[in-house]
Amino acid sequence: MIRFGIKTLLLIGSSIWALALHAETYSQAEDAGEQFIAGQHYAVLETPVATAAPESVVEVVEVFSYMCIHCYTFDPMLSNWHKAQSDTVDFVRLPAVFNPAWQLLAQAYYTAQSLGLEEEMHEPLFKAVHVERVDLRDEDAMAQLFQRHGGVDADTFDKVFQAFSVKSRVMQSRGKSRSYGITGVPTMIVNGKYRVDGESAGGNAAMLRVVDFLVAKEQAAIAD
After folding, report:
1. Fewer beta carbons below 10 Å: N end or C end of the chain?
2. In sequence order, what are the residues at sequence separation of 6 or more whose Cβ sits closer than 8 angstroms to the Cβ of residue 134?
3. Is 163 helix (H, G, I), strand (E, B) or coil?
4. Distance (Å, rounded) from C-alpha 176 to C-alpha 94?
5. What is the C-alpha to C-alpha distance for residues 24 and 135, in angstroms, rounded to an integer?
């Protein structure tokens, strides 16, 4: 039988406590963001995409679609995140255009934006698709939605919905998504340099933590 003296036991206990403290500190450091690795938790774009934000501001883009159920469930969490940001972060929504149905919803988004009703129409468009099951490929149904939630008459809606400027923005959105290398939504782009999605980050909540890490990284670079 091996026997240990009191001093030896105290020394062993102290060493175990120190190791545990080190492990806890390391875990906390990981939680602070050091665990997010390029190529694992986020992708670095081979060619950075120019942003519309001033150099002192970090641009964060959400690429989404009203047709995407994951975007719908993610939106409340994202809205709370957006409200918590300072003026040094510029949040932008970018509708994805993967097929003709998604293109119509992108057109609806830019119609709302052109009418100054982006926030008023954002949630109703999501709910019309995923809760009310409205077929928004029917332009009359889309017009009724804008009239009900935005007070827009059918003629005004049709004029803006079919406007060249709105359709041009949809095409620009398609091109920008291609430049970002988007293959699914929701996906977030930080300062035109980094791409984050739920799969690589480990879920939508984790995606926002990775975005926070990258925003802090860009803000530190701006400060230097």
Report:
1. N
2. 128, 141, 145
3. coil
4. 9
5. 52
| The model's pTM | 0.84
Phi, psi of 169 (to 5 degrees): -65, -35
Residue with tokens 């995409």: 49
Amino acid (one-letter) located at 147: Q
How far apart (Å, rounded) are the C-alpha atoms in residues 109 and 111?
Answer: 5
DSSP secondary structure letters along 73-99: HHHHHHHHHHHT--TTEEEEEEE--SS
- pLDDT category of residue 34 using cuts at 50, 70 and 90: low
Q: Which pLDDT tens digit goes with each residue over 148-196? A: 999 999 999 999 999 999 999 999 999 999 999 999 999 999 999 999 9
CA distance 210 to 189: 11
Residue length of the chain: 224
Strand 187-190 relative to strand 194-197, pairing: antiparallel
Query: What is the topology classification, in CATH, of domain 43-223?
Result: Glutaredoxin (3.40.30)
Structure tokens at 93: 């929504």
From CA 143, how far away is CA 178, in angstroms rounded?
29
Kindly state the tokens that stand for 36: 């997010």
Q: How far apart are CA 122 and CA 158, in angstroms?
A: 18
Q: Where are the domains of the chain?
A: 43-223
